[in-house]
Amino acid sequence: MTLLLSNNDAEELLTMPDCIAALEKAYAELAQGMSVSAVNSDAITPTKTPDAIYQLKLMGGVIPGLGVGALRFNSDVIAYRNKRQVKMALAPGARYTGLVILFSIDTGEPLAIIPDGVLQRMRVGAASAIGAKHLARADSRTVGLIGAGWQAGAQVMAITATHRIATVRCYSPTRDKRVAFCREMSERTGVTVLAVDSAEEAVRGADIVLCATNTSQQVFFDHWLEPGMHVGTIRGAELNAAVVKKVDIVVIHDRSLRGVSAVSKSITLPEDRIAIAGMPDIDRLPSLAELVAGITPGRAHAGQTTCFLNLRGIGLQFAAVGDALYRKALAAGRGRELPTDWFTEDVVP
Amino acid sequence: MTLLLSNNDAEELLTMPDCIAALEKAYAELAQGMSVSAVNSDAITPTKTPDAIYQLKLMGGVIPGLGVGALRFNSDVIAYRNKRQVKMALAPGARYTGLVILFSIDTGEPLAIIPDGVLQRMRVGAASAIGAKHLARADSRTVGLIGAGWQAGAQVMAITATHRIATVRCYSPTRDKRVAFCREMSERTGVTVLAVDSAEEAVRGADIVLCATNTSQQVFFDHWLEPGMHVGTIRGAELNAAVVKKVDIVVIHDRSLRGVSAVSKSITLPEDRIAIAGMPDIDRLPSLAELVAGITPGRAHAGQTTCFLNLRGIGLQFAAVGDALYRKALAAGRGRELPTDWFTEDVVP
Predict the structure, then answer these.
(1) What is the ipTM of this complex?
(2) Is pTM, for the whole model, over 0.90?
(3) Domain coordinates of chain A in residue numbers?
(4) Span B124-309: which CATH code?
(5) Which residue of A57, A245, A338, B34 has the lowest C-beta tally within 10 Å?
(6) Does B36 contact A49 at a Cβ distance shorter than 8 Å?
(7) Among the four given CATH numbers 3.40.50.280, 3.30.1780.10, 2.60.40.1930, 2.30.300.10, the one describing domain B2-119+315-342
């Protein structure tokens, strides 16, 4: 049987500590050269909706130590509005199309089919958590959070899983949104999450700064850095080269070949969505896998400033968190069992 | 609804002319830079079976003129035996795992889920057919076929769709296999398909030579070339640089970036499976899309020798043939309707 799971299943079953544990195993194997990710590959063309593009996005990775591989794909109509990319819910029922398919590497069979929404935020959050575990001060108590969306929520779940956080101060431009976010995240994590009126107010005096916006504009500045501070970003545009150069330790999520996009002639893409302004040598930074494996050093003393660039997601993250969810779903008897024969064949392709 | 189709549906509904028509449209758009394919990307690791590897293979492509995109993936345990790659049927029921998912580029939704077996052979065959249409003599009557497997069958279907073939002479090393193959293909195409005892006997005097083996050894030699002959191969190892250099016109299926493999450290792959021995400048050859679009010339006179290297498959082929099958299945009321909600989500990933 192939297990069809839902975002609800993932929300209810999958915890941030599950994801952190699975990813730590995956990164340790990655550092040894055993886990691998396929190159991220996109195909981008026009679509019917004016000022929008169609994007087919493929990622994949395999973790031999867990015995699984996974494919993650997105089939999206995307508009660019006010320097933000907006995915359009045009599938029937006003829905989005993004899935993770988990495979057994011993039989090849599809073990589970899972929407990518919750897994996506959990793998991003868990990677930030692992970065902070090695780079932020162990006694960090206050977090400055810039952003109040889906990914910002995962950052709160992540950092409260690795550190005994007392207060999160959150800024995002829309007041109602940040207030609602703070209420929700306080309830969810039991940590005080406070809405503040500016990014500077959020980050001033914070032990840990987490940027989790969907903007392509800078939101954190080098003159805001304080001794001992750890800064994390999930989009390169959120900070600039001055921040990266000024901190004592910088680690990037993954250094490997950047994704490759095949783009129709008629399309002009907006500026690079993960570039860090003025930062050409990003490929020489140590990676999270090397940090986890102890190949590159983490924080050595309380006064150091550190930065984790949680950029360049890789396919094996979906194998790790997908497997963690699959095991919990099996144990809990959750999900819809589909005949595996639907997704396999008796002819050699 | 998302349509779940089977290899049986594809066998019964999809004809070689359907595939040729769909691919001609795709290649014409590709030549204009409108259709695009994602980079082929593999992730390869150890698996439980000794002397075997696990390979997750990802392809994708989008054809705006047809309004569709497609993902094709394979999740295979592969052994290498006697210089051949052997996919192992280890999924439940002794089955293989390979699927095509067809998407609407206007909504993003998954339109159909289709095993890749029949589509795979049809897209390879149809590409060979299109190559032969432009490169072989229009009055070609005899075909020399080397190979008697699944792909060889598609080559017979392909060449009999584009040319009024009188005789196919087929050689493959195992006598019983080639005899059974010839009987089956004669019945299927209505063309005389004869088993012969050597490759040389198959190709001598043939107007068209088609190599469709799964060997990584050379099967066609330059001294077998005759005036006016067209030679096609689906694996580079089947011929060598001497053949390619000697013929008057050579076209390669696709010139774009070769697929990228991420391979676990412990794995040593056998020799490049699509390389042409002694042929480093394959990237400068004209492509099938350019041939279809008239950007590169086809055969000019009856005495020319020509060669089509049907190598480097691209994702958009699966979008083309997948769409052709989907339309026919809709018209015929075939397939199992699955709720599209199973494969979509209401959170923005």
Answers:
(1) 0.94
(2) yes
(3) 2-119+315-342, 124-309
(4) 3.40.50.720
(5) A245
(6) no
(7) 3.30.1780.10
